[in-house]
Amino acid sequence: MTGGESAGAAAARLTGCAVTGERPLSGAVTEVALAGGQLVVVKGDEAPGAVRAEAAGLRWLADAGTVRVPAVRGLDEHWLVTDLVRTGPPSARAAVRFGRDLAALHATGAPAFGAPPPGGPTDAYIGLAPMRNAPAADWPNWYAGQRVLPYLRRAVDADTLRPAEATVVEEVCERLPQLAGPAEPPARLHGDLWNGNVLWGADGHVRLIDPAAHGGHRETDLAMLRLFGCPHLSEVLDGYREAAPLAPGWTDRIGLHQLFPLLVHVVLFGRGYAEQALSVARAALAG
Q1: What is the CA radius of gyration of the chain?
Q2: Which helix (H) or strand (E) holds 238?
Q3: Per residue in 75-102, pLDDT tens?
Q4: Which of the following is catalytic: 45, 101, 192, 221?
Q5: Rounded (5°) CA angle 161-166-171
Q6: 0.70 exceeded by pTM
Q7: Which CATH architecture has domain 7-83?
Q8: Is 192 among the residues known to form the active site?
Q9: Residues β-bridged to residue 87
Q10: DSSP bridge pairs for 206
């Protein structure tokens, strides 16, 4: 319950439909049945601006007309109601299609690196971690200053990373202009594209949920897919590269782009991710 209101009551209020049943899914996420048989997902969040950020991200991705996302059915400051995705088994065919659609999404672009979705707040979130979206023209300096270093500082302040260990990440940030590869225009990113946010629809189409959408480098979404595994990833990449070839050396930069989500995990979940973050930082410098 959020603010003393149940998920079912919030769904009824925000959609104007009677509720016939509800079933908890995970955490603050509930499946709710509406009169007429429609199923929706109701997500509660107390963090200021979190619902507005997620809804704006879903709409921005949907507006691109490329990847599929659940439609937003209602929201307020603490509740978000979206269509339920009926899932099925992953398939190679769906993966290739998803890769093409993801390439098309990225190609629709963004006004700047760090640009939030229209109507989205500057102070947003990636998962449970605060994430600031402030536009910048230069990817290496933006990525270092707004993505990597803020989480590095938080990890050091919490004694999750030792100051001596942090120096390798700081060196990566200093060398980013040389390590980043060819310059690319800002892409329209999902922004938190790990396997749990990729739903394989029963109709054979992938849907993306829980975006941390912003303008960024397209290799970041692909690196996130590889970080925690994704079914049929090779087919996803085949479809992507068929639609939009990647810059030479992109596989050597995967760890560079994984550094941000790994540091987020260090901040949220502790020391268990620290060695992985340090390992990709060292590899980036050695590459």
Answers
A1: 19
A2: helix 233-243
A3: 999 999 999 999 999 999 999 999 999 9
A4: 192
A5: 160
A6: yes
A7: 2-Layer Sandwich (3.30)
A8: yes
A9: 201
A10: 200
